[in-house]
Structures are given as C-alpha cells and as structure tokens.
Amino acid sequence: MSARISAKTLRHLIVIGLIALWELLPRAGLIPELFLPSLSSTLIAGWTDAGEYGHALAVTLYEVVVSMAFACGGGILLGAIVGSLPRPRVLIMPMVSSLYAVPLVILYPVFTVWLGIGSESKIAFASIYGFLPTMLATAAGIQTIDPQLLLAARSMGATLSQRLVRVIIPAAIPTVLSGLRVGGALVIVGVVVSEMLISSAGIGYLISRYRTILDSPHVFAGVLLVLFLAIGFNAVIRWIERKAAIWQTGTRAGQANDDIATGAMQPAT
Amino acid sequence: MQPLANVTPLKPAARAGAIEVKNVGQVFKTRSQDVVALEDVSLEIKPGRFVVLVGPSGCGKSTLLMMMAGLRQQTAGTITISGAPILQPDPDRVGVVFQEASLFPWLTAEDNVEFPLALRGVPKAERRAKAQDALKLVGLEGFGRRHPHELSGGMKQRVSIARGLVQDPPVLLMDEPFAALDEQTRMTMGDELLRIWAATGKTVVFVTHSLTEAVYLADEVIVMSARPGRIVDHLQVQLPRPRTYEMLSGDAFGSLRDRIWRHIRKSA
After folding, report:
1. CB proximity under 8 Å: A 106-135 to B
2. Does residue A36 fall inside a structural domain?
3. Closest-CA distance of chain B to residue A172, Å
4. Which residues in chain B have Cβ-Cβ distances shorter than 8 Å to A246?
5. Is residue A254 part of a domain?
6. DSSP secondary-structure letter at B245?
7. Number of domains, chain A
8. Which long-range CB contacts under 8 A does A178-181 form with residues at least 24 apart?
C-alpha cells in the first residue's frame, strides 16, 4: 500500500518537475523560445486569444463527439454481428484486418474532395479511423465469451434474447471498453490531424496556422488544449470502466476492485 | 391410445425426482464419419438417490448428463424426469451444476443465485429471500454480496450448488463439480454436498473422474465403457451413512473401488 502511494507521489513529482522545467529552461535561455516557449508565455498567448481558442475548441469537440458516436456505435454494432455470426466473420474479418494496416490518412485528401474542407470530411475520416479498433475489440470480446456461461444460462432456461442481454453483453463489456479506449483516442488523433492538413477551423487548424507564422507560444497553446482533450477523454473512459467492469479481475484492476468491493459491503444498498 | 377414465395417474409427487433413461443413443455426425458416443443406454434412478457416473475419458458420461439436463438432444431413445420427457432445459425439474467458472463474474453471489429466478420474472423480494435461503443451505450466509473473484474455489462451487437448488427442483445434475478443486477442498465439499443432499432429499446425478469420490458419495455407481459409451456395471454402495473418512481405508470401500477400476482399465 505504502509503495503504491509513493509511486503515485513520485508520478506527481515528475509531472511538476516537467512543468517547472518547461518554465525555467526557456527563461534561462537554454532553449530558444522558437523551439519551446515558456509555459507562462504559452498560457498568456492562449489567454489573450481565448475567444479564438474557445471557438476552435468548440469546433474540434463537435467533430470529436460526432465521430465518436459513429466510430463507437458502428464499431460495436458491426463488431457484435461479426463476433457472433461465423459467416460475416469469414467474409469481413480479413478485409478489416488488412485495412487496419493501411495508413488511412492517405484517404483524407479524397474525403476533402468529396465532402469539402468543413467538419464533414473530418468526421468521416476520424470515424473510420476510430471505427476499426472498436469493431475488432467488440468482435473479439464476443467471440471469447466463455461458452460455459452460455451453457449455464441455457440450463436455467434463458431464452436467446435473455442470453444476449444478461450474458453476452455484460460479458463483452470489458473488451469493448478497451476497444473504445483505443478507438476514442484515434478519433481525437484523426480529427486533429485532419484539421492540421486541410481545413479552416478547429484546434488543429490553429496549430497549423500559427506554425506557419512561427508563433510558437500560440502553437503550444493549441498543443496544450489537445493534451487536455486527450486527458479528459481518458478520465471519462476510466470512470466508465470503473462503473461497468467492477467485476473484472486480473493484473489491471483486480486488487483495487477488491478494495472497492469490500468498502462497498458496509453501506449496502 | 384412448385415455382410460378409470386409470388414476400416478401422483406427481410419487414420481418427482425419478429419472428414466431408455435405450438412449447419441451419434455425432462429422464430415468424414459418424461417431457413436453413446449406445443403447438404459437406467432407472429412484427419487432421492445419489447416483454417480464414472468411466474413462470420452465415455459419454457428461454427454448423458447434458441430455438429462435438456441441453443436448439424444439421437435415439427417451429420457424422462419426474414422469415427463425432457426435451429442453427445465429449471423447475432439473438444476445443473457445472465445473468451475460457470458463475457470472459481473454478478454478486446472491445475484448469481437469483439469476434463474430473474429469468422468469420472480419479484425482487421473493428472489432475494429464496437466494438467502439457498446460500444459507450451502453455508455461505453473509457472503452474498461478494463477487465470484472474491470467493475461493470451494465457495464458488457452493454458490453454483445454491444456484442449482434455488428453484427447488427435485433433481440436481452435477458435471464434475469438484474437478478443479484441490484435494482437501474436494473432500470438504464432498461432505458438504452429502449434508445438503440429506437436508433436501434431492435426486443427485454426479459425474466424476475420481473413483474414491464416486464410492464415497454414492448410493449407486454406474460405470460406463469407452466409446461407444455403454453401461458396464451398476453397483450398489451399501456403506452406512453418514460416510466417514475412516471408511476410505476399509475393505468394503477398497473392493468397490477395485471393482470399478477393473472395468475402467479393461475398456480404456
């Protein structure tokens, strides 16, 4: 227990140290401001143009949320079909797996031709980008359900739909969530990268534009914003994981879950 | 076949828990050939008996149990439980306990026990009360809120037994329920099972690989041969109850176990 706490403290210290270095190194003149502007000048740049960044963030967030809905919804749906039915699996899986190896970003210019340089092309690109891992994880999650559990449910008289709702879905949740984690992260990457390539709005666009005029503090303000976006997303996923997958044992959360569960035993319902 | 007015049907209570297996066969069709897993198996089990099925691996004893549970259809013959043929899983008549790992890991122990009741829409309060009774019966009072990964192997199997008993079926089918447990836990669970069986009066059909376990637990041991599975012996175990650890080293125990072993060695 004490070892874990000290590891956590150490992590915090490292982060604080990095932040301090970020401020001190450029100030001391050890790193040119063009390469790394100090934290304070980055924050000031962001603050003075807060309106611009706020608007960009709104655009990016909108694109991320819509893409995530497509990527996760579609990924889970198709993953469930592919995972539970052998025929579509034989048909689709080889295609999806090889598609996964293709650098999909090469498709983005095509999307801008089809859909213009507005949000639509970003959403299309990021959706496809995040869709693949979500789908693959869902399919794997359903395929790897312990058949013994389904047999047990059947022995207790569970109908097909009861087995789906009460066994297959809860059993697949942990794997699906890990797919969402990867898929969601890729959605953010997809949106920001496509904004940086060809667009007229969003954080990626701001970063790219300030870079061309060598305004490093403004570039880094954008980078910081993307960083927060990713951290926020990660926090949301972790929260969902903790809520939904409390039963999951194993290296990742087994011990912590024991603590949670025993703690929850006293104030019952 | 006209129904005769003057024939009074047997009271269901008189046949509740009786199992009748008549000329049952099971053929698995593969692309190249048909594999005969079971051939012409017939047996009769009286209500309240503790019957153990043993035999070499692949003799079809688990298959036979799955057919009694309605989880698999035989290709020949009939199986009746409590006087009516079993064509699909019927938790009112038959409870099933599997090997380890058949508890739902995302549910607490009591939610696992309630599961079969929840499937049929039994109200929450009634469900909870029945689950508590079943957990108490298997000696797990106070552990209802734990998840399976917080329970030991033996405790998990107690939960499985509670789940099999929660609807109070007259028959409990157990498919190598203690196979994954260490030997000490296995001995304890055997005694526990006998206690539960004595308290409830269920008909138990129990599949195992362990000859000692078979003789220790059973009223009757049914020995099956390797593929195609057939019944080669049907022993009555006359040892007094309650069974004790000392009996394991007795002559009566040893000769029964030897007799089973000779059958198995011959056919394996």
Report:
1. none
2. no
3. 11
4. 106, 147
5. no
6. G
7. 1
8. A178/A137, A179/A75, A179/A79, A179/A133, A179/A134, A179/A135, A179/A136, A179/A137, A179/A138, A179/A140, A179/A141, A180/A72, A180/A134, A180/A137, A180/A237, A181/A234, A181/A237
Which residue ranges make up each domain of chain B?
Answer: 17-93+170-267, 103-168
Q: Tell me whether residue A269 is in a domain.
A: no
B-chain CB neighbours of A264 within 8 Å are 145
- The pLDDT assigned to B101 comes to 63
- Please report the residues numbered 41 through 70 in chain B whose beta carbons come closer than 8 angstroms to any beta carbon of chain A: 69-70
Per-residue pLDDT, B28: 85
pLDDT reported for residue A264 = 32
The domain of A125 spans 53-243
Quick check: A149 contacting B, CB < 8 Å? yes
Whole-number pLDDT of residue B263:
87
Domain at A84, CATH number:
1.10.3720.10
Question: DSSP states of A167-213 as a string?
Answer: IIHHHHHHHHHHHHHHHHHHHHHHHHHHHHHS-SSSHHHHHHHHHHT
CB contact under 8 A, B98 and A157: no
Is the residue at A232 inside a domain? yes
> Cα separation of B268 and B266, whole Å?
6
Q: What distance in Å separates residue B149's CA from the closest CA in chain A?
A: 7
Residues of B in contact with A152 (CB under 8 A): 96, 98, 102
User: Mean pLDDT over all residues of chain B?
Assistant: 87
Residues 19-58 of A with CB under 8 A from B: none
Contacts of A155 in chain B (CB under 8 A): 69-71, 89, 91, 94, 96, 98
Task: Give the A:B interface size as CB pairs under 8 Å.
Answer: 76
CATH of domain B17-93+170-267: 3.40.50.300
pTM of the full structure: 0.75
Which is it for strands B84-85 and B76-81: parallel, antiparallel or unpaired? antiparallel
Cβ contact (<8 Å) for A157 and B115? no
pLDDT digits (tens, 9 = 90+) for B218-261: 999 999 888 788 888 898 988 888 888 888 888 888 988 999 89
| Interface TM-score (ipTM) > 0.90 | no
- Mean pLDDT by groups of 10 residues along chain A of 269 residues: 72 91 88 86 89 91 94 90 83 81 85 89 91 88 88 92 89 86 90 89 91 90 92 89 62 37 32
Which residues lie below 8 Å from residue A40, measured CB to CB, with a gap of 6+? A23
pLDDT digits (tens, 9 = 90+) for B127-170: 999 999 999 988 888 899 998 888 988 899 999 999 999 989 99
CB contact under 8 A, B149 and A246: no
Task: State the first-to-last Cα distance of chain B, in angstroms, to the nearest integer.
Answer: 45
Are A268 and B96 within 8 A, CB to CB? no
**Which of A146, A245, A247 lies nearest to residue B101, judging by beta carbons?**
A146
At A246 the pLDDT is 57
pLDDT score recorded for residue A55: 92
Contacts of A144 in chain B (CB under 8 A): none
